[in-house]
Amino acid sequence: MPRFVFALALALLSLLAGAAPVAELASPDGRNHLRLDIDKDGRALWSVQRDGKPLIEPSRLGFLLTDARKLERGFELEAAATREFDETWEQPWGEQRFIRNHYRELSVGLREREGLRRRLELRLRAYDDGVALRYVFPEQAELKSVNIGEELTEFNVARPGTAWWDTAFEWNREEYLYLRTSINEVGLAQTPMTLRLDNGTHLAIHEAALVDYSGMNLARVEGRRFKADLTPGSAGQPKVHRMAPFATPWRMVQIADSASRLAESRLMLNLNEPNALGDVSWVKPLKFIGVWWEMHLGKSTWGSGPKHGATTANAMRYIDFAAKNGIGGVLVEGWNKGWDGNWWSDGGADFSFTEPYADFDLGRVAAYAKEKGVALVGHHETAANAANYERQLGPALDLYVRLGVPAVKTGYVSDAAQAQVYGAEGVERRGWHEGQDMVRHHLKVVLEAAKRHITVDTHEPVKDTGLRRTYPNWVSREGARGQEYNAWGEPGNPPEHEANLVFTRLLCSPMDFTPGILSMKTQIPQGVPTTWAKQLALYVVIYSPLQMAADLPEVYEKNPVPFDFIRRVPMDWAETRVLGGEVGEFATIARKDRASEDWYLGAIGDAKAHQLDVVLDFLRPGQRYRAHIYKDGPKADYKTHREDMVVQTREVDAKTRLRLHLAPGGGQAIWFEKL
Ligand code: NOJ
Ligand code: CA
After folding, report:
1. What's the pTM?
2. CA separation for the pair 353, 344 (Å, rounded)
3. Are residues 317 and 266 in the same domain?
4. Which ligand 1 atom is the nearest neighbour of the CA of 302?
5. Are residues 233 and 349 in the same domain?
6. Residue 377 and residue 422 share a domain
7. N or C end: fewer C-beta atoms under 10 angstroms in the chain?
8. CA-to-CA distance for 292 and 483, rounded, in angstroms?
9. Within this chain, do residues 437 and 299 fall inside the same structural domain, yes or no?
10. Rounded CA gap, 143 and 145, in Å?
11. Which residue segment(s) compose the domain that 445 sits in?
12. Does residue 151 form part of some domain?
């Protein structure tokens, strides 16, 4: 049961002339300290200390409005109250079953001293693993319709250090390689942005609960001071348009003593609202193969013609393979009309979400899948024409209900700012993938899908801000460079890419990365720059309840040993431990299966070889396990012998220490079978 403690203590200190602390708040463990000041011009400033030392120096708050004077200066404090909250909640599926949500919260009411005397409220939260703040626009006659030109929230990082960041507002959206620079060399960054300060503290700046608002980016103003830079509104509209009352998304700073603790934080989920869908037992983790990699390899096409991949016969071949190998699902891309021509740049208006190509007998394929006990994973590539998709959404999803399709992979391939999307008032415009209109579109799709008990996996999505807690059918998404770049990317992903993802993109959420590629040749010379053992380890390291065995059936047939691990590895976990890691270098993660007492471990590295020592103290004390170890062989190297993998078994228990040898571009996967 949630335990509310409305601490009536008004953390109100005297308001002296000049900068005086207005209110303060400490995290439950006392290490993170949030403070709100109002300066002599009546500007609200927030700041954070950790262990008594500055972490975020006083940082401004407020808004530019497009049709009224800015909301930033001339405030006075009207009210302040704190409360404490502590509950443990259960995820219906996830990387861990139970999550403790323990925080202290400060609510502050601000009011302009003069003029319209408009009000603005702030909620600030201090957790042991970070801090967060959101604005609340209360109902008031002076500000009914809120048109935001810019949010002025700042993050003034107190110490120097290193930043890992993805450039914002570029044509390829979230699909860039992470940049590593010193903090004072960051340009315009997407969130999450990960920082390692010179004292070893790790931070990630991001947002939670992005609903009916535009996505936040970070612009470095000077030194280490960052300012929110909201995604523009569609074609000349304000960045955000809302009617009060409403609350903005949470602006959050995850705080940890190490990269491993950062990756274990569930702060973003805790900042989201509880499940709003009721019984979600119909949301089921699923492993799937797909008529997919063959298109990325150029062996077949999405469009119709002699090389069309989505034929009835080919889909049935995949279904046979899935049924034979206990793989739950089959995705078929390119099944529907609209793929002929330059769908990725011509506006996507040709896409039909109900009409299959002539050589794809949808009814027959669905019946065949059903007979074989395999689920079809639906596919809706929209080319970011969200308006075209919305016009067909009801019938498209109803069709999947009739066919028994439990999950749909959606896609929004187009250059940035080229989405076509309805505004709230129903006018179609060009917009950004993370603008308010697209944020609203995605939630609409997720809710329409939920009504029909369909789960959603979004590609070229809006970034994840933890909404899977509230809408548990939004099971996964892409939102970074996936494995597909190793098929055709210019360039492909470098060996450190996944070790970057763990501590950046994956801080937020499940990712449909599509691991499991054993194929040696792709369309680019480098091929897949990881060893086979690392491909297996990615199933443990990269969490996704909808997880693909991404390679071709014929490749898996030829390689039953690695495929055996891919078939077996779970997609739903009771516990997760990040045993070690450094951003962009390596990560070792252990997870306990939800359905058994078995544990799994995945370790991944970068281009260098690694020796990683792990203690198996996560295993149940006194219990023996058989470790099935998939490791890099003596010749393994991502450049020359990616296939060199050795499988060993040995008995272990919680006291065993293992030394993991990772080859260049290597990894290791272990299944701990309870004896
Ligand atoms: C990009 C997606 O990430 C990929 O998985 C998909 O195959 C193509 N778009 C086509 O929809
Ligand atoms: Ca993609």
Report:
1. 0.96
2. 16
3. no
4. 10
5. no
6. yes
7. N
8. 12
9. yes
10. 6
11. 286-479
12. yes
Q: Give the whole-angstrom CA distance, residue 192 versus residue 217.
A: 9
Assigned token pair, 442 = 């995605």
- Label the pairing between strands 455-458 and 474-477: parallel
Distance CA 221, CA 659 (A): 45
Residue 16 has pLDDT above 50, yes or no: no
Q: Which of 393, 390, 419 is nearest to 215 (CA)?
A: 419
Active site residue 582: no
Residue at a domain's end among 453, 479, 505: 479
Write the single-letter amino acid at 252: M
Residues 258 and 293 in one domain: no
CA distance 195 to 202: 6
> What would the pLDDT profile of 259-296 be if each residue is shown by its tens digit?
999 999 999 999 999 999 999 999 999 999 999 999 99
Ligand 1, atom 8, lies closest to the CA of: 411
Q: What is the count of structural domains for the chain?
A: 2
The secondary structure of residue 201, as a DSSP letter, is: -
The two three-digit tokens of residue 443, written as one number: 């939630």
Q: Which residues have a Cβ under 8 Å from the Cβ of 609 and sit 6 or more positions away?
A: 661, 662, 663, 664, 666
Residue in 174, 460, 478, 484 annotated catalytic? 484
Give CA angle at 86 (85, 87), nearest 5°. 125
**DSSP for residue 504:** T
Specify whether the CB–CB gap between 396 and 354 falls below 8 A.
Answer: yes
Does any domain span residue 359? yes
CA of 475 to the centre of ligand 1 (A): 17
Burial zone of 141 (CB within 10 Å; 0-12 exposed, 13-18 middle, 19+ buried) = exposed
Average pLDDT over residues 439-466: 98
Q: What distance lies between CA 370 and its chain's CA centroid?
A: 31
